[in-house]
Backbone:
């Protein structure tokens, strides 16, 4: 009798163990089997949220599970990304929207911010909004050449706005200064909006901004675009030259994509990357993106990793060069 | 053409679905507004995905009426619990709660309701008729002008310092100092963060506000002796709406505050949280018996509440005429437009006139919804004053914890809230008024950033504040305000009067 119980319990233990093993196995293979949390480092209604509202309904259709947004705004996203890198279980059920260059410039510029991109598994980049220089419709500058001439005549006197220290427009201005040898008076604002509004109201000479953000005002004729920091001209603004055409190798903008913590199961990573590939093939997705003035720039897996690493290297170098003079101001 | 659009918009909003959504939105807004920590901005963002299946105009009507409802809802908690439900209701506490303590909770809520209604209607009319003209004002406000607004705002501290000017200034200075915590917006240098990244973004204003007002209130309820409790019973059956005689005393204040609210709303970067103080301050400035303010004066409630509801229409003016959000809630609303495929920008009033004018009429109708839903809901909410203090005190603390956590989903904010609660309690014990601290906290960062930006723009020259006409006028007004509360002004007036007689 005793023996029977023992055998039975042994057998049961074996079954449980085997079942557990199978279940564990199938968990990874069946990814995802529950909803996925998306950490957002910015307030609802901002650029991150716009990306979430664009992609997640399509991702849900492909992946068959829902995405749950969790907003943890603060410190230009650093609170959410620190949580992603340091405290999140690497099971593929918590991912985050990662914005460049803030993802890297946060820790490049502040030693108190401890995470870095090596602690993440970049999944896919989705949109890149190219940089642009806009001036008021009443501005004396009608071309980028005129603007650069004026800057050359009065070094450090032309006032140019950006979306904030450490943001994409801030770094774009530094890159342009370095490439052209010009010097501007940089004015950081709290976001892209106040920056272009100051230019539109004639409070500052120009705003270094983003195409997608300023496009409605450009279309209405309130802002005049001077130059685009993209690889090639934009079909919406065929008359606006790129800085590359003028002989300066500068292409810059703000990108938004998705990343998971380091060490998520390979199955989860593949499933997520595939989901992004699938939605990118959907014409409805492309149309929705275009309707919302978001420029798609899909980069998957390793390509996205390389993109982030290149940017990290570039921004670290620029910051190293300028930080002493900038912080003394 | 504009006239056609206005008429079409009116018929658009009269569709049964839209009418229902306006009432639903207003009701949700009132509830959200009444809960400390839940803000209109957050509720709009959370409800946004639910509006996807709805027609654009209907979805936006829901969200806009929610915004309007929340502005009134904030006063319910402010009056009954001494806890502002939204930052925009902070000034309502000053006279609303003393009224409730005198057994006039119903009347205070009634005054708030009527003022909110009138403020909202006046701002909706402005939105409907002169938005394209007034919208241009938003562009006139750059860093230089915003600095002047911040300076003018800080002079309010003087009139909020009941009793001791020194203690008031101390409180205001603490507020400005706390506003300096965090990463400086211009240099990127972290200040007073002690290496903690949770402080990089600064102290969340709403979190501090919840702590400063609510925790001391809870402790005060606990400290009260059993015999002192419930000596004042708020009559539930009393008349809520003010009588004609009462209304005649406050209507000038309501109209003045409405215009203050509209303009504060138009200026980007200032919203209901600033407008309520401006409205309150001006009401006190023009009042014959200034000493009544702060001790349960219906005029004080009316001034703050008319101003914060007028902000809704005001902040929508630059939003729809230029695509510039006038406040954080309208910024989220603008994001909502984009999701619905409407490009926010200067084409809203032409290309998307049908959607835009339906939205404007929804804002208008939301005022009426506030009046009707408000009368029902508010009558119920007065029952809150019958809850025993021993139950109410812990309940307030629980609400504070939930509220401060839910703002950024960050447990750190709960500790910040408790620290400010303790600070508020100490200040209460030392009779340091909390209101100047709140004003300092709201305006401190604006002051810091706009000053630095202005000086960058002028390459270090301070004359930029005089050469801008708007800034010069506002700064002169600020100087006048300061002089008005010094003995010098009284002396000048006395000698002038002597001369004329």
Residues:
């Amino acid at each position: 009798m005793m023996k029977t119980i023992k055998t039975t319990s042994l057998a049961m233990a074996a079954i449980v163990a085997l079942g557990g093993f199978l279940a564990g196995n199938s968990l990874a293979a069946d990814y995802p089997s529950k909803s996925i949390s998306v950490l957002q480092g910015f307030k609802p209604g901002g650029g991150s949220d716009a990306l979430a509202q664009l992609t997640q309904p399509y991702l849900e259709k492909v992946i068959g599970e829902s995405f749950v947004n969790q907003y943890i705004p603060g410190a230009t996203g650093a609170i959410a990304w620190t949580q992603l890198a340091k405290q999140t279980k690497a099971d593929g059920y918590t991912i985050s929207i990662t914005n460049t260059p803030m993802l890297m410039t946060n820790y490049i510029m502040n030693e108190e911010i401890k995470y870095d991109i090596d602690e993440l598994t970049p999944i896919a980049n989705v949109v890149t909004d190219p940089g642009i220089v806009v001036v008021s419709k009443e501005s004396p500058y009608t071309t980028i050449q005129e603007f650069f001439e004026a800057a050359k005549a009065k070094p450090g006197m032309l006032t140019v706005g950006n979306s904030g220290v450490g943001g994409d427009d801030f770094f774009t201005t530094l890159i342009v200064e370095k490439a052209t040898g010009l010097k501007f008076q940089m004015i950081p604002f709290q976001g892209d909006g106040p920056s272009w509004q100051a230019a539109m109201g004639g409070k500052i000479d120009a705003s270094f901004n983003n195409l997608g953000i300023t496009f409605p005002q450009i279309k209405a004729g309130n802002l005049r675009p001077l130059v685009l920091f993209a690889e090639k001209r934009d079909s919406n603004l065929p008359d606006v030259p790129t800085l590359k055409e003028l002989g300066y190798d500068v292409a810059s903008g703000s990108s938004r994509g998705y990343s998971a913590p380091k060490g998520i199961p390979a199955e989860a990573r593949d499933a997520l990357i595939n989901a992004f590939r699938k939605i990118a093939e959907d014409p409805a997705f492309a149309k929705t993106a275009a309707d919302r003035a978001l420029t798609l720039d899909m980069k998957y897996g390793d390509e996205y990793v390389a993109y982030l690493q290149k940017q990290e290297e570039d921004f670290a170098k620029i910051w190293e060069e300028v930080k002493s003079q900038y912080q003394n101001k | 053409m504009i006239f056609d659009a206005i008429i079409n918009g009116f018929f658009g909003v009269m569709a049964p679905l839209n009418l229902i959504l306006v009432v639903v939105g207003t009701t949700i807004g009132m509830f959200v507004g009444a809960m400390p920590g839940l803000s209109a901005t957050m509720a709009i963002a959370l409800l946004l995905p639910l509006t996807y299946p709805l027609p654009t105009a209907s979805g936006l009507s829901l969200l806009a009426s929610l915004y309007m409802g929340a502005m009134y809802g904030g006063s319910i908690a402010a009056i009954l619990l001494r806890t502002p439900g939204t930052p925009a209701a902070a000034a309502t506490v000053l006279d609303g709660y003393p009224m409730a303590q005198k057994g006039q909770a119903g009347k205070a809520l009634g005054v708030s309701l009527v003022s909110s209604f009138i403020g909202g209607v006046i701002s909706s009319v402005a939105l409907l008729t002169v938005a394209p003209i007034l919208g241009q004002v938003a562009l006139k406000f750059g860093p230089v002008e915003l600095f002047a607004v911040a300076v003018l705002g800080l002079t309010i501290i003087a009139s909020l310092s009941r009793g001791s000017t020194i203690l008031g200034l101390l409180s205001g200075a603490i507020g400005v100092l706390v506003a300096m915590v965090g990463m400086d917006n211009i240099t990127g240098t972290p200040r007073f963060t002690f290496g903690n990244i949770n402080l990089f973004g600064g102290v969340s204003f709403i979190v501090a506000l919840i702590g400063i007002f609510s925790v001391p209130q809870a402790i005060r309820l606990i400290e009260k002796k059993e015999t002192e409790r419930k000596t004042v019973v708020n009559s539930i059956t009393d008349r809520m709406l003010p009588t004609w005689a009462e209304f005649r005393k406050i209507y000038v204040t309501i109209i003045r505050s409405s215009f203050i609210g509209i303009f504060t709303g138009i200026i980007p970067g200032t919203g209901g949280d600033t407008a309520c103080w401006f409205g309150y301050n001006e009401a006190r400035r023009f009042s014959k018996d200034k000493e009544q303010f702060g001790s349960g004066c219906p005029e004080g409630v009316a001034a703050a509440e008319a101003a914060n509801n007028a902000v809704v229409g005001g902040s929508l003016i630059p939003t729809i005429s230029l695509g510039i959000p006038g406040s954080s809630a309208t910024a989220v609303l603008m994001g909502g437009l984009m999701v619905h495929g409407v490009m926010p920008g200067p084409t809203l009033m032409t290309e998307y006139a049908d959607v835009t004018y339906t939205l404007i009429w929804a804002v208008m109708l939301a005022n009426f919804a506030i009046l009707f839903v408000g009368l029902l809901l508010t009558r119920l909410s007065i029952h809150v004053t019958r809850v025993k203090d021993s139950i109410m005190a812990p309940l307030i603390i629980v609400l504070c914890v939930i509220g401060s956590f839910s703002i950024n989903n960050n447990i750190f904010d709960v500790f910040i809230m408790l620290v400010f609660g303790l600070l508020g309690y100490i200040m209460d014990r030392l009779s340091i008024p909390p209101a100047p601290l709140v004003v300092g906290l709201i305006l401190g960062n604006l002051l810091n950033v706009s000053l630095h930006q202005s000086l960058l723009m002028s390459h270090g020259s301070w004359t930029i504040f005089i050469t801008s006409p708007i800034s010069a006028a506002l700064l002169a007004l600020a100087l006048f305000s300061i002089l008005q509360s010094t003995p010098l002004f009284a002396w000048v007036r006395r000698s002038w009067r002597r001369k004329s007689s």
